[in-house]
């Protein structure tokens, strides 16, 4: 089985990723967020800056991401892509490109176009991006298999 193709299919077909963060004391928090990606390396979403996961990212930018297909058979271990990453609000320098990526996927899924006005003061949302450090799936023996998506 081509695991790279599998990983790309999982990411392309999913609407949400699970974002794992931790607060200053290391208490974990996980949350689903609608996402877009740029070449399977940069994952982009919008969130309120006061949301728990957004506050956690401000304190600890190291996060984890899981994108999964909940329809795969139990025990197959072939339905998820796991990714440690570093996240932050998107700075002005990369905002236009990230907004275009996020808006394109949003429109593909029946959502709306997002503009800078949607993610800057006084709007309630901000644009975030995570850049992944590595990607892997689990094999039949529940062992990590690195991917290059």
Care to give the gist of this entry?
The protein has helices at residues 3-13, 52-59, 92-108, 116-119; strands at 16-22, 28-34, 36-38, 42-47, 62-68, 80-89, 126-132, 135-138, 144-147. The chain is an alpha+beta fold.
Largest sheet: 7 strands, antiparallel
Q: Helix/strand-derived class?
A: alpha+beta
What is the molecular shape? Answer: globular
Q: Would you give the CATH topology?
A: Pnp Oxidase, Chain A
* Level-2 CATH architecture: Roll
Descriptive account of the structure:
- It is a single chain.
- With 149 residues, the chain is of the alpha+beta class.
- It has one domain: Electron Transport, Fmn-binding Protein, Chain A (Pnp Oxidase, Chain A).
- The chain has helices at 3-13, 52-59, 92-108, 116-119; strands at 16-22, 28-34, 36-38, 42-47, 62-68, 80-89, 126-132, 135-138, 144-147.
- The strands form 2 sheets. It has a 7-stranded antiparallel β-sheet, with helices on both faces.
- Strand 3 (36-38) and strand 4 form a beta hairpin.
- It starts with a helix and ends with a strand.
- The relative contact order is 0.22.
Give structural attributes.
two-stranded antiparallel ribbon, Pnp Oxidase, Chain A, 27% helix, 149 residues, globular, seven-stranded antiparallel sheet, 4 helices, alpha+beta, 9 strands
List the helices and strands and how they pair.
Layout: H1 3-13, E1 16-22, E2 28-34, E3 36-38, E4 42-47, H2 52-59, E5 62-68, E6 80-89, H3 92-108, H4 116-119, E7 126-132, E8 135-138, E9 144-147
Antiparallel strand pairs: 1-2, 1-5, 3-4, 4-7, 5-6, 6-7, 8-9
